[in-house]
Amino acid sequence: MPRRTATALSLALIALGPACAVDTISNLGRPVSTEDAGRAGDTGRTSDAGDGLRAPDGSPCATPDACGGCSGLEGQPGQPCGPCGTFACQAGSLVCNLPDPHTYYLDLDHDGFGDPTQPPTSACAPPPAHAEDNTDCNDADPATHPGAPELCDGVDNDCDRLPEPGAEDSDGDGIPNCADETLFTPDLTRTAAIEFVDLGGPEQPAWHNEGDGLVEDAGASRAGAIFPDLGDLDRFSVEVTIRPMAVNNASTNGCGVILDYHGPSDYLLVEWTEPTREGHAPPTLRLQRCQWASCQSLAESAAGDLEPVRAASNHRLAVTVDGLGLTAALDSAVILYATLQAPIALGRIGLFSYDSDGGVAFFDLRVSNLP
Description:
Number of strands: 21
Number of helices: 3
Largest sheet: 8 strands, antiparallel
Radius of gyration: 45 Å
CATH superfamily of the domain at 179-369: Exo-inulinase, domain 1
CATH topology of the domain at 179-369: Jelly Rolls
Helix content: under 10%
Order of helices and strands: HHHEEEEEEEEEEEEEEEEEEEEE
Structural class: mainly beta
CATH class of the domain at 179-369: Mainly Beta
Shape: elongated
């Protein structure tokens, strides 16, 4: 080839760049190694080991990963990677799945609830003495946390920021109701603390004191003597001594204990009906839900369980509430068993008199906490 022609060809190759140079040289019959072709990059082929794969940066893939791709990662699916990730095959390539870190809170008492007043920690797994929940209200006491049973100890055990049931001190003796065996024994002669209500009878109630007792003797009345709110205990007993009287052959048609009093239009009544009988129906103990004078019977004693009592004799009525269970006993004999439709709190209780033209007297009212 003439020297001038070769020189011109060389200058043309330099101007076209390396890729054109490899092809042209190859076409001229000069041998080209696979390594040279890979560096040149004009054929789209890579090394035999990569089987045509390329790394994410576009360079030839020297070694496929465990999933047959070219991620550049070394590991096997299922193995840990990164701070808290796990290798996995995704779209034919090995990836490191990194979950979002969790937030944990210091839990020094190890009750599963962290301290909201301490700074949180971000980590893949809970560090020692940490929890994901931060609603503990006392991180120094493992018995105090949300959902813990509320105890009668003056502590907000369940962290609901509400007073514990029975935290009230109804008799002012310095002991909360929930820890006080006898929590209310009112002086029935101090009527200023008693609310006297008309529960829908045709006559106005007539309450007055006789000795240390409270008497109601208005005929055709439905009368209630209601006491202050005693709190939200749901296990308690109410006991009172009742003396049904008969004057000039007049008698008491009903008497008893009022529970769950929310006003004259909503209260529970345990009524001792026809205690002296006096020619009326046989006596019973009856649980009723009342709205004024309209009462729905929920449970009552069986026929023949009670005998009429002698007028002007004293008898002890005891009503016990234990969750949904209610019993009523007369002179220590349990006569009435009932299941409440829903739990009731102690709240406001009272005494009840119905059509007591002969008079009915109440003595020694006592409210106790169940052991």
